[in-house]
Write a structure and sequence with these properties.
alpha+beta; 7 helices; single chain; four-stranded mixed beta sheet
């Protein structure tokens, strides 16, 4: 016999996941990029449904009615040569990806937000949505599980400068310091947190 959780208990779970996002985001921003792996797990708990399990927002009955904050407007990138939905800056070490953590400008439906391409390179066959990145990090790359094998395209993106940047300081070639996958997770967490803080302001 199973005992259903009350609405009060479910809202408590929501508060906890939002608190996890705040704590892990602070750790990430203070220099521990690996904390994005725990962010990916919280995001998955909140929004990802499977045949066997429901997301917390689906259980609460609000997932499809919410408008999700986004730094990117809804647009077609199919004719774009390359696109990166992150900030990038040159450092003494080389090129580094950074999340955008200012106020998101746009609002999208869940499906448009979750499946929106956030990094794209037609030449190198790179096309990742928020969903692709979050599930790869949480399910296979140390969030909730470590898989001994990664998909080739994710491995290239996260470990092999799959985007193909060539970075020089004078005549000296420099590398790309980090992959874009963890900054994308951090950015996605910020977008989701601002969405939920706005949606549940009177409840939380």
């Amino acid at each position: 016999m199973e005992v259903p959780q009350s609405s009060t208990e479910l809202i408590k779970h929501l508060k906890e996941q939002m608190q996890f996002i705040v704590a892990s985001s602070s750790s990430y921003d203070n220099g521990f990029e690996g904390e994005a792996k725990r962010l990916a797990t919280s995001i998955r708990i909140l929004v990802h449904d499977t045949n066997r399990s429901k997301s917390l927002l689906e259980i609460l009955g609000v997932k499809k009615s919410i408008q999700y904050h986004s730094y990117l407007e809804k647009e077609d990138h199919s004719k774009t040569i390359a696109f990166v939905g992150l900030s990038m800056r040159f450092t003494d070490e080389g090129l580094r990806y950074y999340p955008k953590v200012g106020q998101p400008e746009y609002k999208l439906t869940f499906q448009d937000w979750w499946n929106q391409p956030v990094i794209y390179n037609k030449k190198n066959n790179i096309n990742f949505s928020r969903k692709n990145i979050i599930l790869a990090v949480s399910n296979k790359d140390g969030g909730a599980h470590v898989d001994p094998n990664l998909s080739e395209r994710y491995a290239k993106l996260s470990r092999m400068n799959g985007f193909g940047w060539e970075v020089f300081k004078g005549e000296e070639e420099q590398g790309v310091v980090n992959g874009p996958e963890l900054p994308i997770v951090r950015q996605t967490a910020y977008e989701l947190y601002t969405t939920l803080a706005s949606e549940f302001n009177n409840t939380l």
